Amino acid sequence: MQLDQLTSADFRPHLGEEFRIHYSGELPLTVRLSQVDDFQPGARHPGRAPFSLLFHGPKEGYLRQGTYTVEHPQMGRAEIFIVPLGNDEAGMRYEVVFG
User: Domain named DUF6916: which ranges (predicted)?
Assistant: First the structure.
């Protein structure tokens, strides 16, 4: 994955699919892509339209905010900044924002 070239359209076909987040040399955390949202482009974002991703993972335990290697079988690997948002009925929510 080349982060500077990714758009929301690259992720939409993978809604509901599993991604792996690698951290601390332990087994990767498996999360599911549950939402892709587009933001309105504006003067502050002259290039790619900004968007966000929402992932759901296990309710028990969570990753801290930070940069992690995220992997998907078709999309490949990339270093991505991830923010934990808290649990809901589907599990722990993680957000990624592309500006």
Answer: 6-98
